[in-house]
Amino acid sequence: MSHRLLVIEDVAAARDHLVQLARRALEFQPENIVVAATLSQARAAILSAVEADLLFKMALIDIALPDGSGIDALRDLRTAFPETICIMTTVMAADSTIVSALAGGAQGYLLKGQRDDLIIRQLRLIESGVPAISPPIARRIIEHFRTRPPVSESDDKLTPRERCVLSVIAKGARVADAARELGVAETTVASHVKSIYLKLGVSSRAEATLVATRMGLVG
Amino acid sequence: MVPIRTFVFALLLVSTGAILTVAMALGLSGFDGSSYAMPQAIITAGERILVTPADLIEEPDVLPERAAQVAFFSRQSDLALAMQVPGAQVETRDATGTALVAEVRERTLGDLPFVFWFQVLIGVVSVLIGAWVVGLRPADWGARMFALLGLFLPTFAMPAAIYSTRPLAMDGTLFEALSTLNHFGACAFGAALVCLFLAYPRQLVPPSIFAAVFALTGILFVLDVLHILPVTIHHATVAVQMLAAIVAAMIQWWLSRRRPVDRAGLRWFLTTTLVGAGLFIALRAMPPVLGMGDNFVISQGYAFGLFLTVHLGLAAGLARYRLFELNAFAYRVWFWFAGILLVLAVDLALVVWLNTQVWTSLPVAIVVAGLLYFPLRQHVLERIFTPKRAAFTRSSEIVDLVFTREAEQRDEKWDTLLASLFDPLDSERDTASPVTVPRASSDGSMLLVPSFAGLDARRLRLADRGRRLFGPDDIRAIDTLLDLGRIVEEGRAAYKLGVVAERDRISRDLHDHLGAQLLSALHTVDAGEKDELLRRTLSELRTIVSEEGSGEQSFADVMADLRPEIADRLSLVGITLDYRVAGEDALLPATAASALRATLRELVSNVIKHADARVVSISADVKDGRVTLDVTDDGRGFEQEALDGPGRGMSNLKTRAAALGGSIVFAPAGALDDIAGVAARLKFPLEQPIAASLP
Predict the structure, then answer these.
(1) B389 by DSSP, 3-state: which?
(2) ipTM at complex level
(3) I need a labelling partner for B154 at 20 to 30 A (CA). Which of A61, A155, B199, B312 fits?
(4) Strand, helix or coil at B159?
(5) What's the CA dihedral at B243, B249, B252, B258 to 10 degrees?
(6) Same structural domain for residues A75 and A108?
(7) How far is A160 from chain B (nearest CA, A)?
């Protein structure tokens, strides 16, 4: 697998900083790093990568871009390269925005204001398969599954184990803490969280379909 | 309840009349086959009196001269006497020509023919309709005359019912008395009809004229009864009355040309009156004039039913045009009454026609009423009382209207919505309307819609482009719509208020927290410390803009959100975290939550920078409205830390605690068991001092 990185970020200083941190965390080579400052640049980069058949291992996507939302870039990237680890970056996006990005297929998110060593640590964790999650996000997800309209599909409901993981994280546990508290391996908790994100996406799509059906747009 | 009292009084009155009529009809001598076979002769002991067709006429009025009438009544007395001789028989011939001889006997209810009951029934119905209308509009001369019309119909119909269905003969004196009563009723009915059209829809003359009409009629009646004049003037009187009524009606019609309300009611009323009276004249009054003798198209009893069309026509007009403000209750009276009547009528009909026992026909009556009448009645009720214009189907339009920002567009949309609901003849805005609930004007011509959601009140005139008046259904429809609109409007206002409050919160938070923190960062020389301050500012900023930062925050949530951040920071420098949150959850004001976060982060920073610790325990507790936060490390201890100089950090901590209305104290962690370290304890009440803000 090619070790290529895509960084979508409009603030030049922040972009350079992110590139530096990503290199330090995961040893990306400068020639394997593609940067984009706008949504349209990002789309062009994705397109040329598709044409050259060079996939990205990881993408850091700023949620707020000058010409659109990073969630659009995320969607394009998911379609072009389903394998790419997509990480949303933000200075101060609301939790609800982050949850919708996670539902759109992002594996995690970074708060750009954090200390360098914390960001590096999170990048490594995500790369090793431990998804990013926080107590407020966990609470939002719990709320989402509790209040959304009933959809008949069974693959978008949380299992009791997943609900348990969410509630522990909502109380302040990190993935490692949750594993210790629940007496399971860290990878187990990680796979639960990933599965939750997946269901979040499924339930969001199912919800969108349901709304569309109710409005008479479909069927 | 004047309407009910009037109705009940009328019911009692007309029942008495009906019972009296039935009793008198039963007092006549009868015989088998009297209702279908033609009597030929009366046979008494050895004597055979032949019956002629002239003896069988229904109505003595058809006889042209007084002398003929006198002779007729005297012959009737003779025949009636002959029938009362013991053992008298009547020889009859039925439709096939078969001769039969029947014993004279007492009449029973079953002997009374249908046309008799029909006349009694129209008398009862007309009185009740009249009482119903005058009960609802007691002060209205039109209604009073209408009630009199109803009262005089049985006055001529019930006596006629007795003599026109007599079995062959009755006492001449009684016959003449009933005939006179019939004349009286007919004249009075005619007078009432003239007065009715002088009073309805507009009162054209003062009440004294009504009295004059009745007085004149009375004089003509008395002259006729006393036979002072050489000719009978009864028919002439009635004809003149009819003509006068038609003229008055035409005047009313002409006057109503610019008043759709009047015309709507008059159209029905006039049509039914003219058709009813006209048909009666054509079928009953004209044949004798044209020399057709007693050879009528229909029996007089049924012809009387034509007058009832006047009443039924008005009732239909009332129901259709809402001529008066009649509520659903006013109509229900009739359904109850009709229900009782139907049960009685079916029962009676079965008693009479099937000649069966009372105990077998009652269940049949119940079955017929249950299977046919009640479903039918339900259907009629629903048709009458269900609003035709369901307001709730307009809910999306009213929501759209309330959310329309431009005042002009709102007004336009409101007008469009009202127009599509009621299609009024015209609509105007009324800025000074005192109306707070929708209501119709007393004649139903106007619908007053109160002002709502900043829109002016509206005054709608005549529904369906003037074809219809406004009624209770319309009021209910607009009421429902307004209720819905008001709920939406309240929701919108609350939302707007919420937006303003949220903006206030954000600007206050920005000023209180971020201003101070950025100022501190600006004046910090050390690069690392400056970065740290800026990061915290960013973090606070995120909290402020995110939904969780609004208003009060859960203490448990604030503590939960801090935990991963602190755990990460400590683990990077190899310090173990022991984190406990106990006590009940509580809501913290945003300022307190912010101060709590800042304090905890500062304390953790101090431990990382100065303490050289291996374990940090953080425990928080809420009890009795007080928050206690302990941060304890196992590091170098207080004295070393103090030597290193807590600097501005320490003074900031104390200022924050004071702003929260609480305190922060530091003590050696191991004072008792000789273990080093620092124990910091922050305490503050949940009830915040009013001007709590950070330095």
Answers:
(1) coil
(2) 0.84
(3) B199
(4) helix
(5) -130
(6) yes
(7) 22
Domain boundary among A74, A104, A131: A131
**Residue extent(s) of CATH 1.20.1070 domains in chain B:** 112-326
* B chain contacts of residue A111, beta-carbon cutoff 8 Å: 539, 542
Question: Domain B552-695: which topology?
Answer: Heat Shock Protein 90 (3.30.565)
Residue B572 with chain A: CB contacts under 8 Å: 117-118, 121
CATH number for A12? 3.40.50.2300
Beta-ladder partners of B49: B42
Q: Enumerate residues 6+ apart whose C-beta is below 8 A from B225.
A: B180, B183
**Is the Cβ–Cβ distance between B607 and B623 less than 8 Å?**
no
Same domain, A29 and A103: yes
CB contact under 8 A, B567 and A177: yes
Which of chain B's residues have a Cβ under 8 Å away from the Cβ of A118? Answer: 568-569, 572
Residue in A93, A113, A117 nearest the CB of B535: A113
Indicate whether A127 and A164 sit together in one domain.
no
Nearest CA in chain B to A173: B564
Which residues in chain B touch residue A177, judged by CB atoms under 8 angstroms apart?
564, 567
pTM score of the predicted model: 0.48
CATH node for B112-326: 1.20.1070
Using one digit for the tens of pLDDT, what is the confidence trace for B449-487? 888 877 888 888 877 776 667 877 788 888 888 888 888
| Chain B CB within 8 Å of residue A72 CB | no
Give the Å distances, CA to CA, from B643 to B67, B108, B648. 147, 128, 14
DSSP output for B418-469: HHHHH--SEEEEETT----S-EE-TTSSEEEEPPBTTBPEEEEESHHHHTB-
The beta-carbon neighbor of B559 closest among A117, A172, A174 is A172
Put simply, whether A95 touches B (Cβ < 8 Å) is yes
Cα–chain-centroid distance for residue B328? Answer: 7
Give residue B695's pLDDT band: very low, low, confident or very high (50, 70, 90): very low
Asked if A111 lies within 8 A of B546 by C-beta distance, the reply is no
CB contact under 8 A, A172 and B562: yes
State whether A9 and A96 are in the same domain.
yes
Give pLDDT tens digits for B245-290: 889 988 988 888 777 667 777 777 777 777 777 777 667 666 655 5
Number of domains chain A is built from: 2
Residues 6+ apart with CB under 8 A from B118: B301, B302, B305
Q: Does A113 touch chain B (CB under 8 A)?
A: yes
Range(s) of chain B covered by CATH 3.30.565.10: 552-695
Residue B572 at interface with chain A, using a CB cutoff of 8 Å: yes
In angstroms, the CA A111 to CA A92 distance is: 7
Mutate to test the interface with A, among B517, B561, B566, B578 (most CBs of A within 10 A): B561
Comparing B307 with B206, which gets the higher pLDDT? B206
pLDDT in tens, B659-668: 788 888 888 7
Last residue within a domain, chosen from A131, A150, A185 = A131
Pair A81, A175 in one domain: no
Closest alpha carbon within chain B to A137: B561
Is A219 within a domain? no
Compare all CA atoms of chain A with the CA of B534 and give the residue at the minimum distance. Answer: A113
Q: Is B541 on the interface with A (CB under 8 A)?
A: yes
Q: B632 has which bridge partners?
A: B617, B679
Angle in degrees, 0-180, between the axes of helices B207-225 and B141-164, rounded to the nearest 10:
20
Q: How far is A136 from chain B (nearest CA, A)?
A: 7
Residue range B66-73: mean pLDDT, rounded: 89
